[in-house]
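Q: Is it fine to ask for two folds in a single conversation?
A: Yes, each is treated on its own. Send the first.
Q: Here.
A: Result:
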Amino acid sequence: QIFNQHNAEAPNLEQALRRMAQMEPNLDHDVSWFHLPSYWAKMVVALISFLCFANSYDGDFVFDDSEAIINNKDLRAETPLGDLWYHDFWGSKLSSNTSHKSYRPLTVLTFRINYLFAGGFYPVGFHVINIILHCAISVLMVDVFSILLGGLQFSNKGRRLNLAPKSSLLAALLFAVHPVHTECVAGIVGRADLLCALFFLLSFLGYCKAFRENKEGHTFSVFWVLVSVILGAIAMLCKEQGITILGLNAVFDALVINKINLLELIRKLLYKDKSLENAGLLRKGLLFRITLLMCGGAGILYIRWRIMGTGPPAFTEVDNPASFADSLFVRAINYNYYYSLNAWLLLCPWWLCFDWSMGCIPLIKSVSDWRIIALAALWFCLIGLICQALCSEDSHKRRILTLGLGFLIIPFLPASNLFFRVGFVIAERVIYLPSIGYCILFTYGFSLLSKQAKKKKILAVAVLGILLINVMRCVLRSSQWRSEEQLFRSALSVCPLNAKVHYNVGKNLADKGNQSAAIKYYREAVRLNPKYVHAMNNLGNILKERNELHEAEELLSLAVQIQPDFAAAWMNLGIVQNSLRRFEEAEQSYWTAIKHRKKYPDCYYNLGRLYADLNRHIDALNAWRNATVLKPEHSLAWNNMIILLDNTGNLAQAEAVGREALELIPNDHSLMFSLANVLGKSQKYKESEALFLKAIKANPNAASYHGNLAVLYHRWGNLDLAKKHYEVSLKLDPVAPGTKENYNLLRRKLEQLQKKGS
């Protein structure tokens, strides 16, 4: 509905327009709900959306946050800003074969700003921004729903009228408190969805502004249509779904601005009716605006294609098993089953999980599978709604149902597997935008029930109860997202067949030092998915540390057999083979790892250790030098170079390497200690003493630091200071090798000096 006024003499235009609107069907006539002024409605929505997720503000970095934020070099100041436009969401080059092609430079830019303002990786600032974004989006939803549910109408002053204040408030509250949004708000990586939604809504509202009559009397503004396209492009640069707003703007234009009856239009197209103009296709500049939207969308997609290239993203079968099924029937059945599960999460968001892959949802392989019922139920409901949206004689009903289905389905299309393979089975974050359509349909259904119900207050209380339950569920789910331990354990009851859930619980336990419990979960992950190479690798690592070398070797050998380019597993296999003194096999494993990952400093470090054990000193030094070239802050490689050169009598070279290392890592106390030992042997006692004292200040409880400083003082002739530091060293480590013997020698020497003096 859009009305434009050309009579400037009308004294009470706004009231007249409201009366005209009241003559048409209006959801608020039937909805038994609170009527609040626009300002207060937005305040209530903002407050409730804040209360739902406020307890996530001090959560940790969890799950994907590690890769997208902590390990993402694009957040650091030393990375040029221009690189953000050529890297994916995870910091990898878009041209890389391993890139997921998720192109979200504006989202990464906000992470970078967060990082710079916080002065490091402090999650509070990241979480606070996410909460604020969700509150802002929920407030915008009041305006969006007022248009979608009540129509678009302006006063003579150009102010948009809210013709459905009660319905828009209810729909906005449903959106604000939906528990499925928790992943987007409490998980920092969900910022991509939040920013995308923000600009998605701004694009829609901008498009609506295009129909506010200007002073020249034009019925629409090309400027605001172009602004809408630009905002859609910004939404896409935050997340791929943003591009779908251009399609939704076109649907809105056709249904609301031009009041096209889709069924009538289809009939005229089928029968080649020459009166298409009367159907509204060419009226009011619709064709021109659609052309602008299409050209804008095509231009955006072309630029994105030029930046990211034509190569598809690299996903594995465990990420999305249905997409790897050989049978078209199996693929189609399972895709539709996934759609039904997404719909169920909107209807009943009680069973939520951070990851739905890896066997969480077994494939449907036969029509005898009882889960086919879910597909039938989904399509029964969708077909019923589509028929009503097309065939109903009530234009108001047609408009709301079509808009509801449009906002439900169109933003979901990029995640549907229809156009390209996606890297997940179900992802709660991708339902953030489609939930707008769900809220429209729920509110419309509530209005129909209210119209029929004799006791409308009971129905209103029931809806209030749903809102309250959702608020409580949001609070509970937000608390689970505060730490990885709670998040991963919460998934065990929802997806007990998900190998990744068990893997992540095990990894969390291993990081906390609970290796025995971690082994249990890693074994279960491998049992559920016998090809889960990452679980095999981590389990093999723990067994290696527990000196269970033969089982560790079996697991790691199987991992590289399943995935021959798994560089980390090759390196760990080399470490195990080295421990088993099978040096030739270990060397071959290390070089295979380096073959598959050219820049692998840790592997060069371990290769250097192997060469050192074989007394191949030149090869060892070269390997460690390669490690430090690839990773200048690789302290262990620097230390081993210094120690090897020291032990082989190359004191000048050891000193040079030590000084070079300290220039790169000036606060590393282990390097200070190693260089201090070299300087002491070179009789540079004063400089050696300064470095020992600095190392001790950084790590006062290291017995070897005190013991070697005591040896320095012993050589230097400062016997009292030597005695003091020997005693400190022995107090910290009574069985320190050599320290007790040196201390006894010093005591005898002191006793002899005392006898001579007496």
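Q: Second one now.
A: Result:
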Amino acid sequence: MADTLEFNEIYQEVKGSMNDGRLRLSRQGVIFKNSKTGKVDNIQASELAEGVWRRVALGHGLKLLTKNGHVYKYDGFRESEFDKLSDFFKAHYRLELAEKDLCVKGWNWGTVRFGGQLLSFDIGEQPVFEIPLSNVSQCTTGKNEVTLEFHQNDDAEVSLMEVRFYVPPTQEDGVDPVEAFAQNVLSKADVIQATGDAICIFRELQCLTPRGRYDIRIYPTFLHLHGKTFDYKIPYTTVLRLFLLPHKDQRQMFFVISLDPPIKQGQTRYHFLILLFSKDEDISLTLNMNEEEVEKRFEGRLTKNMSGSLYEMVSRVMKALVNRKITVPGNFQGHSGAQCITCSYKASSGLLYPLERGFIYVHKPPVHIRFDEISFVNFARGTTTTRSFDFEIETKQGTQYTFSSIEREEYGKLFDFVNAKKLNIKNRGLKEGMKQSYDEYADSDEDQHDAYLERMKEEGKIREENANDSSDGSGEETDESFNPGEEDDDVAEEFDSNASASSSSGDGDSDRDEKKPAKKAKIVKDRKPRKKQLESKKGKDPNAPKRPMSAYMLWLNANREKIKSDHPGISITDLSKKAGELWKAMSKEKKEEWDRKAEDARRDYEKAMKEYSVGSKSESSKTERSKKKKKKQEKQTKGRVEKKGAASKSLSSTKSSAKSMSESFKSKEFVSSDESSSGESKKEDSEEEGAASPPPSSEDSASGSD
């Protein structure tokens, strides 16, 4: 016989809700691991007192009773597994697995039995239903009546809130059966009553969720948060985990208490209680117990008088009362030396802590993800800037968490951590040997060599060196895409590699231009304009003859109304189906008649098309001739305009050249004085006029000589 039995998809009934998980039976005992919370219930073989096999709603179930009165219920077994379980119990636990069926008569009159943590309502020897007394939140009595109220179950759509029992009066003197019933319930119920004095009180502690300042009163069985607006009572049995996390600034500490079920305020549920402490704040604490009681109860974990940092005192007291280990960050160290990574989740910024067995994000909203529930992680490029990246986590249940705006320098450290924990990385794909090696009931920290990781480390070093060099230089940012494992070649394309600092000396524009780092023009491929499928969609000519109908369509048009009358209210789709069936079932002779009609329609269409095409050809030739004529006229007018432009250009050029010539041959006297220049200009004008006039006649010359 095998030493262990394992069952998947087993449901454990806890406080009215069915939590799925894995069950393992071994020689040492029974272990159940909750898939949702990761909580492990361990029942030692020596503690088992009774095992019961019975039929339940989810197939068959196993009920285990321990010697100290605790009851554990597991459902989801198949009927065929009874023999295997029965033999295992006999061989390893020396217990007989008894078969007990529930009573289904529907009677409401029976006997109540109290056994350990259970209230069982029986008819004869068969149980009708059982109530775990830890589910009871309140017990009230009336005349011959006891009312039980239950804790609200957030996981169930419908939950039982109240049950009333009628207790008949008895003839015995001095014993009230109603009070006896109520006392039995209250002794085992999860009823929080703040009776007696608190062990210690911490005043005005800063709480991030729920937000505010609260006095924390520590009682033996529960924690009391007393604020100005709200009060919360938290039983220690609901505390799942404790975390002590250093803030990135190294001056503050987070103390996180994970709760299941959560505390409620209206419709809001708080799964985490987060306290924020300053490291500099000290306290001296005195427990409200004598030294003997402290020693007996806490066995040296606490003393009557203690002093130290406030966060140390709170965490030490909580650890002793809850009896759970405090989780602290492991050996992870980010780029800045902190044990956390700054990032954003949803709308707010916070800190992501990589732990030894999971990730925790604080603080709004707090998220805790265990490694054994992670399907894969993904490193994605940031949506807004290339200086950061996103870290995505997807669980086996399909829930996705995206932590964005993580600094690019954190990538190498986070990648090393994820790879060392053997989490599947989506970017890389699932390589051989990189599958999770987690035990179903524990974590594994084994490591192995990965060539991809070594390459990534080398590239990370190169990137850091390049980043340092660029920060010492111009300080310009380059737009790089986040592609892990690829070299960044964009910088070489954009800037000249031999660029030097620009010269400040005045050697001329050409020298300065030579020494400036010339930006190379990016090669942009000319985008070819998309060809329109049809530049001008030809409109349908209304005068064109219509296509002929097929034989089936001619028959359908003729018989449509008849089919509608035979089947009133028939839809269009059903009508087409019915018509198809009738056409299929029609004889060949009848079909030939409609084929002839279709052939006649086709001939008529071809004849009409010939006539239409002849007419359209003549029209098209006319339009083409008119288009050619129009183009010719446009060319001629364009040529005339060009000639005119050339002529005007030449005229203006001659005028300007003459003007420039006259200006260029001015004498020094003309430049020196304005008066002489004006006189000279007049003279020149008169000389020019004389030179232009015809030569004088002989008479004129003679008279002139005289």
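Q: Anything structural to flag on that second result?
A: Two points. The mean pLDDT is 75. The longest strand covers residues 252-265.
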